[in-house]
Design goal:
single chain; 249 residues; alpha/beta; Elongation Factor Tu (Ef-tu), domain 3; Rossmann fold; 2 domains; 6-stranded antiparallel sheet; 5-stranded parallel sheet; 11 strands; globular
């Protein structure tokens, strides 16, 4: 479940799959064109609902990875979960031209726009990087140089979603810095660490920011968010500036 969700009056509508891009062995980005396009903010998510011929329905929430500056097409990075009814449908069955039901945008706490300023600290675990990428894409589209540090954790180098895009953004700099940590693989390529996020890691990275973070955003599984938020607090970051978004139960 997600926390800090703001109620939405959005209604279910049809959305057409316009294409897909494989991001990692277990994550595919699907692109949707809603019948009635809507405005959203970086960090928000949508609900997706599937209905079987016998009327059985299942729905899941997915963070929007695209930026609101990119037009009407919405990108959702969907990770395959072996027991997941929705994710396996998308990975095994869905094709461009198919229609699904979608509702959104949802969420009003875990958002950031350039008007909010910075510096900002972003911490993502696995597919939890998706809403943070939306924020970064918005920042880039607006030509902003808001000081931003992303600490991104994944199990292996090949499981870093949006890896090449993030590395390219780091090379361009413009106030953006990136630190990668791999939890099931030794340091590889441009990875900075090979362990789970802990206070020592955060303490080492904070001096890379030009000033103290105005806001910190943490997104991932329940266990990941709890550990990362605890690490932030342990190094002196006030709980009041930490915003979290959790996946799972």
């Amino acid at each position: 479940m997600r926390e800090q969700i703001v109620a939405t009056q959005a209604k279910w509508q049809k959305a057409t799959i316009t294409g897909s891009v494989r991001r990692t062995p277990r994550v595919i980005s699907f692109f949707f064109k809603p019948a009635f396009p809507f405005a959203y903010l970086p960090g928000q998510h949508v609900d997706v609902r599937l209905t079987a011929p016998d009327g059985y329905q299942v729905q899941r929430s997915y963070s929007i990875a695209s930026a609101p500056d990119s037009g009407d097409i919405i990108e959702l990075a969907i990770e395959r979960l072996d027991e997941g009814e929705v994710s396996t449908y998308f990975h095994d069955v869905a094709t461009p031209g198919d229609e699904i039901e979608l509702r959104g945008p949802v969420g009003g706490h875990f958002i950031w726009t350039i008007a909010d300023g910075g510096p900002i600290l972003l911490i993502g675990g696995g597919s939890g990087v998706a809403p943070l990428v939306s924020m970064l894409r918005h920042r880039t589209a607006q030509g902003a140089s808001t000081p931003t540090l992303l600490l991104y954790s994944a199990r292996t180098w090949d499981e870093l979603i949006f890896r090449d895009e993030l590395l390219d953004l780091k090379r361009k700099s413009n106030g953006f810095d990136l630190a990668l940590t791999l939890t099931r693989e030794h340091q590889s390529h441009d990875a900075d660490y090979n362990r789970r996020i802990d206070p020592a890691m955060v303490a080492e990275l904070l001096p890379r920011m030009p000033a103290s973070a105005k806001t910190a955003y943490v997104c991932g599984s329940n266990a990941f968010v709890s550990a990362a938020a605890d690490a932030l607090i342990a190094v002196g970051i006030a709980a009041a500036i930490i915003r979290t978004e959790r996946y799972g139960v």
